[in-house]
Design brief:
281 residues, alpha/beta, Rossmann fold, 8-stranded mixed β-sheet
Length: 281
């Protein structure tokens, strides 16, 4: 019996050690300004100079989400008052996000709201939401109703009434060449029938603009906070949400994109796209 107890205790300790080690694994990043590779913890002093950090993702890649948590964890452990901004949730679901962080809603009920907001697997995102709940990190719904973006993509921004527009104004498909190329590529990858490209472009800008506005609104209400925005790589790149931030504020911000060989790496992008590349994902 004593031997069995010793074995069980050893296994428990081993799992505890592995969990602790995993919790403090730190990803490598490539600093595009200084052309050097480092770990996130080595970049923390520079990252903390920003009020907004955008960390891009491919929605179905769990490695990207684990890297996002690594950024958040490193900031949190450095004493930063961090909040997490989510492309995955609409702003009208904020009450549910608050209940999740407070521990006032169980996973089953939360998942109903999660899937009402988002079409990707909960298991890919669990690591983010569990960490936020454990550490009581505020979660911010940044997105807008799909009904709005769907209407814009089919009928254009001008089809929205005053209530639908909300804080938005004068959305038009006027972007630089690099972002236009991205939007055209995204347009070509969608099954859109007779969808008008200009309207599709306006819908992309609605997403970028709404998320920028909601992140800035949170900072205005929480002047000591930093927001880490989790969003797709297309929205995180500097010509997307960051461009809308720059149009509205002088708030300092940085962009971290995940490495995708041949698409996002030190050979294919530069400081006009991002500040850092997350390596080895």
């Amino acid at each position: 019996m004593k031997r069995i107890f010793t074995i069980i205790l050893s296994v428990v300790v081993l799992f505890g050690v592995l969990e602790a080690v995993q919790a403090h694994l730190t990803h490598r990043i490539y600093d595009l300004q200084n052309n050097k590779e480092l770990v996130i913890s080595d970049a923390i002093s520079d990252l903390k100079k920003n009020r907004i950090i955008l960390v891009g993702e491919h929605h179905s890649n769990i490695n990207h989400h684990e890297a996002q948590v690594d950024v958040i964890r490193t900031l949190k452990e450095s004493g930063t008052q961090v909040a997490i901004g989510l492309e995955m949730f609409r702003s009208d679901s904020q009450q549910t996000l608050d209940r999740w962080v407070a521990g006032n809603i169980d996973e089953k009920d939360f998942l109903e709201i999660f899937y009402d907001n988002w079409g990707y697997s909960w298991e890919n995102y669990r690591v983010i939401f569990d960490y936020a709940r454990k550490k009581k990190i505020p979660l911010i719904g940044l997105n807008v109703s799909r009904d709005i973006t769907r209407q814009v993509s089919r009928q254009g921004f001008k089809s929205l009434n005053k209530e639908q527009k909300g804080k938005l104004s004068n959305i038009a498909c006027r972007v630089d060449k690099e972002y236009m190329d991205y939007i055209k590529k995204a347009f070509g990858g969608h099954t859109h029938g007779k969808l008008n490209f200009t309207y599709f472009c306006e819908a992309q800008l609605v997403w970028d603009t709404v998320m920028a506005i909601n992140a800035l609104d949170y900072l205005n209400k929480n002047p000591n906070a930093m927001v880490v925005v989790l969003t797709g790589t297309g929205h995180a790149q500097k010509n997307a949400i960051p461009r809308q931030i720059r149009k509205r504020s002088e708030v300092s911000h940085a962009v971290i994109l995940p490495e995708i060989k041949g698409v996002i790496d030190s050979e294919t992008i530069d400081q006009s796209d991002a500040d850092y590349i997350m390596l080895g994902l």
